[in-house]
Design goal:
Strand content: 5-15%
Shape: globular
Strand order of the largest sheet: 1-2
Number of strands: 2
Helix content: 10-25%
Distance between the termini: 28 Å
Structural class: alpha+beta
């Protein structure tokens, strides 16, 4: 089994939209790729107290388009919980 680790550095405050999409486009996804990210995808346990969704649309699009075998992500403090499946 081949093992590879790819890392890219960006945080939710400085990289949004186009910059985040550019960084994500550099990641090559194989059928057995597992993605670990701090930021959550838009629409997946990303609601804050005001009701606004604050997840990343770039990460959501990346997961939808690249379809890694698994992904683990960080959290939004106001929207705690877990989900074992999501449709993108």
């Amino acid at each position: 089994m081949k093992t590879a680790l790819a890392m890219t550095g960006f945080n939710f405050r400085s990289y949004r939209g186009l910059k985040q999409r550019l960084e994500l486009s550099k990641i090559q996804v194989q059928p057995d790729t597992i993605i670990v990210a701090h930021e959550v995808p838009y629409g997946c346990l990303d609601e804050i107290y005001s009701g606004q969704r604050v997840g990343s649309t770039a990460i959501r699009e990346f997961l939808r388009d690249k379809q890694p075998s698994k992904w683990l992500c960080g959290h939004i403090h106001e929207s705690f919980g877990a989900t074992s499946s999501a449709s993108f």
